[in-house]
Each structure stands twice: as structure tokens, then as C-alpha cells.
């Protein structure tokens, strides 16, 4: 939006303070002829026209398009066709035609953008097709491979068994943990979480260390136990190495100690006592220690076998039965061997024996048992918290499925997905950029087409505008003689005139301008529009003046938005129209255009308007003034208010009815409309003629402005007669439209105010 117009340096404006500042949404600028109105409109059309003069905008990346109507526009737009009565053309812009051809030619900027856009779309379609194919392949593979998962883990697929797409989405959502859970771990935990019949398990007992290692008899295993060294038989027995045989033979001597139990020969005297001395108490104590050791080992071996059997029975979900079975077989066979060695030692104490070391085997078995107990504890914990553990276990199962079973397939899909995503990202950016640039270019092309193409669509819009305000004196029709030529056609089919009058040229050019502005403001994309209209009512009669006023008022009608509480928070003009600046020297056009009803005032329409006055302060020098309110309009409207109130109440006012009438006639007919009253008196007779003479005589008395303070109120004629003659003057001069408008406005304003 334009915020200020700095006029210093432009013709007519020689002072540094020549600025139209604080511009609003709708701006009305009043000034007499020669006060710089056209200079302002030309500067707004071309900001570089006058060195030193500038136009300030609100901060915006894209300045709005300024559309200017002034006499330059009329001259450049309408060309009358020589030799063809009443036929005219609406001219195109040659520079616009050249630019349009360049932009739209084959291989030109628009074609390039279209090709870029098409290529981007093709890349997106291709990437999407590749991605869809890869998803389908992955979905099929996952659907087939889910049957490879152990039955105990199939609960992980609950809710996904009837939809490939849901199975695929869950697979792609799965976070693969590091480290991955093992199948053994998942299976063991599933026994508690997924299996409804699961129950608690007791912890396994460790294999105790071999207890004989600390017994007194353990060192005797490797020692040779024989008789006493004090016996004379000791040397013979050691030489024969038959101590164990001799010791065993003692049991056969019995009561008859004189005869050998084996050969039945007589024994030497004292042989039995010497033999008893050989195997004394010490020998017997050693044998007793070996027997205790044997009993202890047998008890421990029995308990070890039981614990081994218990561990082997716990099941594969807790322990590696293959390893345990191997260690169990080795340990049990070793136990048997040890038992045999101990028995042998007791049978032949003199022979040393060595037991196999069981520590390593026991350690291996206990390692398996500890691992099993860890799993049993996890099992029992999972069983106790089955509901909460279910979700965690399902997530771990999916992690295993994705990271192990589907790992290769997923990696292949991710490679394709990454490649396609990169293509899609690039293509989407290209498409967005090309679409934006194409839309911007097309908006510009439409503007160029408005300037260079056939005017027929715009003419149709112009006729619609005329019909919309009820104007029926003529419409604009296509000429049969000139391509893209037009003529003003009356309702009876005849042309409006041999040539276009100044008023008709002004009116047609303004209609063309408003149609173009309306079209530009209604574009969904493109530049915002600022409307500048400079004196659009030159040489127009009152009926057309009313139409022009209504058309412009419709264009600058404000709208508003409201917040949640219904309070207005923004005022704006129609569509893409962002601001209006209207300049005029015509007080009647000003009055009609700036008039606001009471309802419009209550709705805050006045707040959107700014009023300015241009004044001549010297030879060729003008000043600019921001008015606090619409004071220019009020001087003229007040006189009409006096007439309307008197007509409505049948009473005279303080100012004087006749004075108000004379000032209105002078301002409107003599000074503004330039209508002569010569011969008009002949249209009146009797008292009406006298009243006319009274009113016209005042006009010739010398007053020139509605601001004159001289008043004159002749008496002798009724108020009603003055009012009737006053109205007939407008009627007989073809200005009844202005009369009706002003009377309705001031009465409406008065009623709204009450």
C-alpha cells in the first residue's frame, strides 16, 4: 500500500512540505483545475517521471500494481476509426505484445517452465512407482517369512494375520535394537508370556564340590598301606609284595593258630602274634579312614547324579541340553571310575590309587546351571508380570524379525527407498518452484493479454457493468466494419452518434478501465492492485455522472473480518484491490462519491477514508492539505439539506429557502455543469415564471461561490411553489437525476442520524 506521495520537484509543487502523507485505504483528493491532480496521477503511473518526487510503500517483497485512469489513459486507449461514424477501437500496447510473444513462443520461458514441471511430475511418478513396487515385494516377502517364526512366537503377529499392508507398516515402523535379541532368549521368555499354561519353575541346585578332598583319608589313596615295620615278617612280606593277601588271610586262621589255613602245615611258634603285630591298630585306623572316605564319596556322588538328572529334566527352554548331556555323561562315568578306585583301594590298601579331577566338569555343569537359573528367574518374573511384559516381548520379537529374518530384504528396500526419497524431494522442489514460477508468469501473461488480445471479453464485462447499475441509454456493440472495432448502440439498434463526444470517450474509457481493474483484482494469483482515478466525470451529463459514481463506489466498497468475539479486526477492499486514490475538481461528483449513510458511518466506514485538498497558493504553485473530515462535501450538502428539510416539513429554515436554492443553482448549473438558462423562462408561465425570474436574477447578481454570505429572501410566494419550480428547473434541463440523488441522500442522512 502507498503510505505517502512526496511531490516536491513535480510541476505545481515547489515547497518541500508538498506531501500527501498518512494515506489510508480510500483516499479522496479535491482540487480545482490546474492544482496538480494530473501531475499526481502521472507520478503514480511512472514513479521516475519527476526527479525528486517519490512514492513510499509499506514494506513488501512485491510492490502492488498501480492502475491509473487519467486523460492520458483516455487518449491512449480509444481511437476513432476515420470515415466510420461512431466506430472506435480499444488500443493494445505494442511493448506488451512483444513481451507476450517472447514469453509464449515455442521454446520460450513458459514452454521451458512447462517442460520443467512435466519432467518433475514424471520423476515423481517414476519414483513413486518404483517405491510402490519395492513395498509390494517387501510385503510379499514378509508375509511368506512370518511362517518361519517358531510357533511359540506367533503371538507377535496378532492383529496382522489378515492384512499384508498392516504387516508391512509394522515392519517398517520397527526399531531394530542393538544388540538384537536371540531366538533362544525370545523363545524362553515366550514360554512365560505367550503360553497360557505356563507355570513357575524351581531353581536348579548347583553341583557341590567333591567333599573327600578335605577328608583325612584322601591322602591315603595315593599311599601304600601295609603292616608295622617292627614285625620280623615285614621284610618278607614287602619282598613278596603280598601284604594285602596276608592281611586278608588273617581271617582264615581262626582259633587254631598252629596250622596254616591254606597249606595246612604247622605254623612256627609265635607266628600268629607276629602277624597280629604286623597289622596293628595304626593300620586299622587307616583302613577306617578310607571307609569313611568311601561312604562320603558315595553319598556325594548319589546327590550329584540326582542334581544332574534334575537339570536334564528342566527342558531346552532353560538349559542347553546338548551340552549338559555331554557333561553329565562325562561326570557320571568319572564318578563310577572314582568309586571303583576307592573300592580297589580298600581291597588292596598297599596299592596307591589316583582319582580323576572332577573340578573342571563340575565347573562346566554349574555354569550351565547358573545360566538356566537366570532364565528360570526371568521366566518366573515374566509370569508374575505377564500383562506388562507382553508388549515388551512383542516389540523384541518384531526387532528380531526385522533385524534377522527380514534383514536382507529390509536393507534392499531401504536402499531403494533412500534413492526414491531423494528423487522425490528433488522433484517436489522442482515441481513447487516450477508451479510457482509458472503461476507468476501466467498472471503476468494474463495482464499482457488484457493489453493486447481482443477487447471482446472486456467489452462483455463493460456491458455487464452497465446492466448492473441499470444503465440502458446505450451499450457497446461490436462493429461489423472493423476487426476489434466497437460502437455505442442504442436500444433501438441505431448508433449513438456520428462521432464520440468528449463525454462518451471519457465514459467508455472509464468503463474499459474499471473492467480491466475488476479483472486484475479478481485474479486468484498475481500482483495486488492500487486504483488511481483522476477526474472521471469530465463532460458527463448527470445521468452518466450518477452511473460513474455508483460504479466507483462499488469498486471501493470496504469489507471486514471479525475476531471470535465479533469485533472487527481488519478492513480491506474487494479481492486483490488494496487501495484507492480518487482525484476530482467536481464538487457534485465529490459529494455523491464521498456520501456515507448513517449505517455506513456506524459500521466505521469513515475510519477507512482520508480527505485531502489541493490549493493554488501562487502562480503555478500549489499546496497540499490533509482535511480532518470531509469539509468540502458538507458545504454543498448543507444547502440541499435546507431544501429537503423544508420540502419534508413545509416550514422555512433559518438560512432561507430561496437563498439555498439560488446557491445550489449557481454552484451546479453555472459554475460546474456549465448549463445555460437562456430560453428556460419560456418553459414557465404565471407565478412559476416569476419565481424563475427571481431565482435567475439572483444568479446574475454576481455571486459565484456557495461560501458567499449574502442572503436574500423575497416574500409573497408560497414555499410549496418555490420547491416545485426548483424541481422543474432540474427536470427541464435534464438534471433530474442529480436532484433525486441529492434529495434522497440528505434525507437519508438526516433520518439515519436520528
Q: What distinguishing features does this structure have?
A:
15 strands, four-stranded antiparallel sheet, Rossmann fold, 754 residues, alpha/beta, rod-shaped, 24 helices
Would you kindly provide a written description of the structure presented here, covering whatever features stand out?
The protein is built from 24 helices and 15 strands. By secondary structure, the chain is an alpha/beta fold. Among the domains are: 204 residues, 3-Layer(aba) Sandwich (Rossmann fold), CATH 3.40.50; 122 residues, no CATH class. Strands 5-10-13-3-14-15 form a 6-stranded mixed sheet, with helices on both faces. A 4-stranded antiparallel sheet has the order 6-7-9-8. Strands 2-1-4 form a 3-stranded antiparallel sheet, covered by helices on one side. Strand 8 and strand 9 form a beta hairpin. The longest helix has 46 residues. The two termini are 36 Å apart. About 2% of the residues have low confidence.
- Shape, per Cα inertia axes: rod-shaped
Q: Outline the biggest β-sheet.
A: 6 strands, mixed
CATH topology description of the domain at 2-77 and 501-628: Rossmann fold
Kindly provide the name of the CATH class of the domain at 2-77 and 501-628: Alpha Beta
Task: Output the number of helix runs.
Answer: 24
Any low-confidence stretches, pLDDT <50, length ≥5? 702-717
Radius of gyration: 60 Å
Find the count of extended strands (DSSP E, 2+ residues): 15
Helix content: 40-55%
**Overall mean pLDDT score?**
79
Amino acid at each position: 500500500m502507498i503510505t505517502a506521495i512526496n511531490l516536491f520537484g513535480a510541476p505545481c509543487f515547489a515547497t518541500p512540505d508538498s506531501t500527501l502523507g498518512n494515506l489510508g485505504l480510500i483516499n479522496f483528493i479535491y482540487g480545482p483545475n490546474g492544482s496538480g491532480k494530473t501531475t499526481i496521477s502521472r507520478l503514480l503511473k511512472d514513479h521516475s517521471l519527476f526527479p525528486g518526487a517519490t512514492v513510499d510503500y509499506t514494506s513488501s517483497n512485491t510492490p502492488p500494481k498501480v492502475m491509473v485512469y487519467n486523460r492520458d489513459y483516455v487518449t491512449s486507449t480509444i481511437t476513432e476509426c476515420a470515415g466510420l461514424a461512431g466506430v472506435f477501437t480499444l488500443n493494445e500496447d505494442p511493448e506488451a505484445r512483444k513481451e507476450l510473444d517472447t514469453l509464449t513462443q515455442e521454446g520460450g520461458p513458459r514452454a521451458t517452465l512447462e517442460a520443467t514441471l512435466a519432467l518433475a511430475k514424471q520423476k515423481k511418478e517414476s519414483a513413486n512407482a518404483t517405491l510402490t513396487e519395492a513395498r509390494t515385494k517387501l510385503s510379499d516377502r514378509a508375509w511368506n517369512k512370518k511362517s518361519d517364526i517358531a510357533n511359540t512366537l506367533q503371538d507377535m503377529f496378532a492383529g496382522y494375520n489378515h492384512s499384508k499392508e498392516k504387516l508391512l507398516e509394522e515392519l517398517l515402523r520397527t526399531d531394530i535394537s542393538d544388540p538384537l535379541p536371540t531366538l533362544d532368549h525370545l523363545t524362553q521368555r515366550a514360554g512365560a508370556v505367550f503360553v497360557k499354561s505356563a507355570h513357575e519353575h524351581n531353581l536348579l541346585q548347583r553341583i557341590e564340590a567333591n567333599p573327600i578332598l578335605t577328608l583325612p583319608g584322601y591322602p591315603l589313596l595315593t599311599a601304600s598301606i601295609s603292616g608295622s615295620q617292627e614285625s620280623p615278617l615285614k621284610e618278607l612280606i614287602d619282598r613278596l609284595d603280598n601284604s594285602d593277601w596276608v592281611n586278608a588271610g588273617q581271617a582264615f586262621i581262626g582259633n587254631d593258630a598252629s596250622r596254616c589255613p591254606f597249606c595246612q602245615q604247622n605254623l612256627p611258634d609265635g607266628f600268629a602274634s607276629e602277624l597280629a603285630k604286623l597289622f596293628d591298630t595304626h593300620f586299622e585306623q587307616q583302613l577306617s579312614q578310607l571307609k569313611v572316605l568311601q561312604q562320603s564319596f558315595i553319598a556325594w556322588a548319589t546327590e550329584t547324579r540326582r542334581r544332574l538328572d534334575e537339570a536334564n529334566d528342566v527342558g531346552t527352554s532353560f538349559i542347553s541340553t546338548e551340552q549338559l548331556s555331554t557333561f553329565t555323561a562325562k561326570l557320571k562315568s568319572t564318578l563310577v571310575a572314582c568309586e571303583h578306585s576307592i573300592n580297589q583301594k580298600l581291597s588292596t590298601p598297599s596299592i596307591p590309587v589316583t582319582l580323576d579331577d572332577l573340578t573342571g566338569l563340575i565347573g562346566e555343569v554349574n555354569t550351565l546351571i547358573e545360566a538356566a537359573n537366570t532364565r528360570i528367574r526371568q521366566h518366573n518374573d515374566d509370569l508374575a508380570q505377564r500383562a506388562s511384559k507382553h508388549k515388551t516381548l512383542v516389540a523384541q520379537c518384531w526387532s528380531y524379525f526385522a533385524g534377522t529374518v527380514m534383514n536382507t530384504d529390509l536393507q534392499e528396500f531401504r536402499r531403494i527407498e533412500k534413492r526414491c526419497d531423494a528423487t522425490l524431494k528433488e522433484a517436489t522442489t522442482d515441481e513447487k518452484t516450477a508451479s510457482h514460477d509458472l503461476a507468476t508468469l501466467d498472471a503476468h501473461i494474463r495482464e499482457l493479454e488484457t493489453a493486447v488480445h481482443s477487447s471482446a471479453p472486456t467489452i462483455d464485462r463493460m456491458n455487464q457493468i452497465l446492466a448492473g447499475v441499470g444503465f440502458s441509454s446505450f451499450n457497446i456493440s461490436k462493429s461489423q466494419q472493423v476487426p476489434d472495432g466497437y460502437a455505442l448502440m442504442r436500444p433501438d439498434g441505431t448508433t449513438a452518434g456520428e462521432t464520440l463526444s468528449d463525454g462518451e470517450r471519457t465514459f467508455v474509457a472509464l468503463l474499459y478501465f474499471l473492467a480491466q481493474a475488476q479483472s486484475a483484482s479478481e485474479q486468484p494469483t498475481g500482483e495486488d492492485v492500487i486504483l488511481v482515478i483522476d477526474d472521471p466525470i469530465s463532460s458527463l451529463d448527470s445521468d452518466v455522472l450518477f452511473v460513474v459514481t455508483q460504479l466507483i463506489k462499488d469498486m471501493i466498497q470496504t469489507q471486514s473480518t471479525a475476531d471470535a468475539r465479533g469485533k472487527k479486526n481488519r478492513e480491506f477492499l474487494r479481492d486483490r484491490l488494496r487501495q484507492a486514490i480518487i482525484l476530482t475538481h467536481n464538487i457534485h461528483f465529490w459529494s455523491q462519491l464521498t456520501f456515507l449513510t448513517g449505517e455506513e458511518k456506524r459500521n466505521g466506514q469513515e475510519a477507512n477514508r482520508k480527505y485531502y485538498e489541493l490549493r493554488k497558493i501562487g502562480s503555478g504553485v500549489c499546496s497540499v492539505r490533509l482535511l480532518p473530515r470531509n469539509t468540502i462535501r458538507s458545504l454543498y450538502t448543507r444547502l440541499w439539506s435546507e431544501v429537503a428539510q423544508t420540502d419534508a416539513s413545509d416550514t422555512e429554515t433559518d438560512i432561507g429557502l430561496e437563498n439555498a436554492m439560488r446557491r445550489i443553482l449557481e454552484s451546479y448549473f453555472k459554475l460546474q455543469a456549465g448549463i445555460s438558462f437562456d430560453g428556460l423562462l419560456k418553459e414557465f408561465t404565471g407565478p412559476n415564471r416569476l419565481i424563475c425570474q427571481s431565482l435567475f436574477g439572483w444568479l446574475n447578481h454576481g455571486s459565484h461561490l456557495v461560501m458567499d454570505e449574502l442572503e436574500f429572501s423575497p416574500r409573497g410566494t408560497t414555499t410549496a411553489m418555490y420547491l416545485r419550480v426548483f424541481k422543474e428547473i432540474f427536470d427541464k434541463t435534464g438534471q433530474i437525476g442529480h436532484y433525486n440523488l441529492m434529495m434522497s441522500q440528505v434525507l437519508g442522512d438526516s433520518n439515519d442520524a436520528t
